[in-house]
Design brief:
Layout lengths: L5 E10 L5 H11 L3 E6 L5 E7 L1 H13 L5 E9 L10 E3 L4
Parallel strand pairs: 2-5
Antiparallel strand pairs: 1-3, 1-4, 2-3
Amino acid sequence: MQNAPGAKRYHISGIVQGVGFRYFAQRMAQRLGLAGFVRNLADGRVEVYAIGSPEALAQLRRELERGPRSAEVSSVAEEDAAFDPQYAGRFTVEYDA
């Protein structure tokens, strides 16, 4: 039996805006078969909301901690999130926080 999909929210701090982080996160999530979104926050962090298997979510967190070459990730805060079917079909880059 396959694990039921879960949802996580990640807040990434550091030099993560203006360095291609959202597109990096989108590529990684799509590669891992995750749905959800990524967006910049007004306070300089990036938020990622992801839906998928526990294994894929754990791998996404590892990728977010690494980030693209141009970013400097100082921390990744993770929390369980409610499943939102609005984001279940694909992984998008959002442009409004």
